[in-house]
Amino acid sequence: xxxxxxxxxxxxxxxxxxxxxxxxxxxxxxxxxxxxxxxxxxxxxxxxxxxxxxxxxxxxxxxxxxxxxxxxxxxxxxxxxxxxxxxxxxxxxxxxxxxxxxxxxxxxxxxxxxxxxxxxxxxxxxxxxxxxxxxxxxxxxxxxxxxxxxxxxxxxxxxxxxxxxxxxxxxxxxxxxxxxxxxxxxxxxxxxxxxxxxxxxxxxxxxxxxxxxxxxxxx
Length: 219
Ligand SMILES: [Zn+2]
Known about the structure:
Elements: E1 6-10, H1 17-28, E2 31-34, H2 35-43, H3 48-59, H4 66-79, E3 87-90, H5 96-108, E4 115-120, H6 123-131, E5 133-136, E6 142-144, E7 163-164, H7 171-194, E8 198-202, H8 207-217
Parallel strand pairs: 1-3, 1-4, 2-3, 4-8
Antiparallel strand pairs: 5-6, 5-7
Helix pairs in contact: 1-8, 2-3, 6-7
The structure holds zinc ion (ZN).
């Protein structure tokens, strides 16, 4: 099945939105627009943008400032995508300015948002999940230590590539990000709620149950 649809998936760290984004991308042949991955890849580059991002994200442990995000990253990246395929937005919008930016920008590239899913989990659960998470190098499969693999295991059970812990996945930094998110996502959710666009999903269910629930909304 192939559909040229555009979806936003939201939810706190550890809500499993990345996993759901990948499942939807496979099912509907969507391009994943995942700002976290884009930023981490750019931060490794030996360029002015790369060095600045590396300093902001890894030295200061801060959120990337909006103007920089908008001008240096979002505008460029959206234009590089295949115009004939849909997009799943994961990790954007994170603030109201960003939601308004997409609202103005997407029609100019012939797109509109068809669905917005918000996966909810309690804060404690989020911190717990992220602090015990590892990712694999090849596919960034998120793996929960103690559930998906043991502490000693070094290979991804899905694809066999090596696993690692993200350096900003400490409980302190996770809590920092969550608090920032909560404060900034509130107006974003209100913004889309006013448009009647938010579909809320209970993130405590299994991956399969969440996927089925999401799919039941896509017509
Ligand atoms: Zn893997």
